[in-house]
Amino acid sequence: MAFSSFFNTLSIRAWSVVLVCYMMLHNIHNSPTKLRQIFITSSTLISAFLSVFILAFAGEVLHVYHSQRRTNPWWLLLWSHHFDDRGLKAAIGASVVVLVLDGVILVTSFSNHARRNIIRLIAATLATIAAAVELIYPAVLNQRAPATDTMQTWTCRWSDSVTPVSAGFPNDFPAICRQSKFVSYGAVPLFVLQMVVLGVSIWALTKEEQDRKESEKQMEGDDGSERFESWSHAKSSFSTSITAARP
């Protein structure tokens, strides 16, 4: 039942993400080129700042856990295997990847390199994959509670509990709970932003290819017109010469 509920919730979030991305990309498609450039730059900057916050909070929670797990009885000293910190590690790794790739996207956005759109598309694709991992993997691990707990499920359970036992939980548990939730829920807008950047990158590459083909066709048409005019001029000159040569 827990997994069924999780996947239903994930499906709703996925459809919401798709709808938001479609609306944003539709507005981009109907906007001038400069506005699209501003949009992709602002989306990338917001994504980068969000990655920094996720990285900071995930690192802080992981640091607190590893510094207290051998001394704080609330971290179950004898059952340390009960806790799974892979979600936080994945969030840290994915945030670093997204941050680096967002930097690449920003550099290519202000570059005149011939292959800037291809480079940006590759970077946006990899960043979107990293954001998807950051969104899905910790959520899957959270759904395994209470069989195994993450830092989020454990600290939030005690912080929200009103039982007598929970009265003695550590003072930093509520802060850890909030930071862990930010890491989990912050991955949703991060993924949306990366989807938008990816969509704009695909559009830019497609538009560049269309413009190139249209330019080639126009050049071929201009060359044909010039050849026809040259042939007509030569024919006219030849006819004039023949007429002048007649007695």
Structure description:
The protein is an all-alpha fold. The protein is built from six helices and no strands. Helix 3 runs antiparallel to helix 4 and helix 5 crosses helix 6. The longest helix is centred in the C-terminal third of the chain and has 73 residues. It is elongated, with a radius of gyration of 30 Å. The mean pLDDT is 78.
pLDDT < 50 stretches:
none
On the 0 to 100 scale, the average pLDDT is 78
Total number of helical segments? 6
Helix content: over 70%
Q: How big is the Rg?
A: 30 Å
Instruction: Give a count of the beta strands, DSSP E runs of length 2 or more.
Output: 0
Termini distance? Answer: 107 Å
Largest sheet: none
Query: What form results from the Cα inertia axes?
Result: elongated
Q: What proportion of the residues form beta strands (DSSP E)?
A: under 5%
Biased composition (Basic and acidic residues): 209-232
Keywords: Membrane, Transmembrane, Transmembrane helix
Region (Disordered): 209-247
Biased composition (Polar residues): 233-247
Provide the fold topology.
Layout: H1 2-29, H2 33-68, H3 86-109, H4 116-142, H5 151-160, H6 173-245
Helix pairs in contact: 1-6, 2-3, 2-6, 3-4, 4-6, 5-6
Short structural description:
With 247 residues, this protein is mainly alpha-helical. The protein has helices spanning 2-29, 33-68, 86-109, 116-142, 151-160, 173-245.
